[in-house]
Amino acid sequence: MGSRMANQELAATTTANGGAAPEGGAFPPFDSSYFSSTLIWLALTFGLLFLLMSRVALPRVEGILGDRRKKIDDDLNAARLAKQQADAAFAAHAKALADARSNAQLLAQQARDAQNVQNEAKRAELEKNLGAKLASAEAKIAQTKTAAMANVGAIAHETASAIFEKLTGQAADADALHAALAAKQS
């Protein structure tokens, strides 16, 4: 009851002083007459705050952190899976590229071989045609040479006769001229 009276007196003096503490009085939170009620309210407030935090706020925060941890783990697992798929796709692409190069080289070699066979066949045909033309030309040359050689005797006889006639002014004896030419050819 004593503290009640002191409170009423303090309230009356505070009101009389325009809201300021009376002179010589202690600041109310540091006043020892208020310690017991202040400690009780502090304990009650701390207890309620602790109860509120432990039952409501902390489970929510723990749930949010758990959800974030689960989301991060899920994202990391998805990233690992995507990396494995990308690595597998890269390996498949590299294998397909190597196979394509190998096939291209094989096709190029086959094309070169086929072209070489065609070129060799064309060359053989051309050589055969050229050989035939060469043989024909050689036969014609031989014929022409034989014909020319057959005519050489007649040409030589005519030329010798013309030279003899020019030099001597007389016609040459055909039999003597023929015998002289035959002797020179042998």
Rg over alpha carbons: 68 Å
Low-confidence stretches are none
Share of helix, binned: over 70%
Report the count of strand segments: 0
Summed up, the helix count is: 3
Cα(first) to Cα(last) distance is: 179 Å
Name the helix and strand elements from N-terminus to C-terminus, one letter apiece: HHH
SSE class: mainly alpha
Overall 3D geometry? Answer: rod-shaped
SS strand fraction:
under 5%
Largest sheet: none
Q: What does the average pLDDT come to?
A: 84
What is this structure's SSE topology?
Layout: H1 2-16, H2 35-168, H3 174-185
Helix pairs in contact: 2-3
Describe what this molecule looks like in 3D.
The protein is mainly alpha-helical and 186 residues long. The protein has a domain at 146-185. Helix content is 87%, strand content 0%. The protein contains three helices and no strands. Helix 2 (35-168) packs antiparallel against helix 3 (174-185). It is rod-shaped. The N and C termini lie far apart (179 Å).
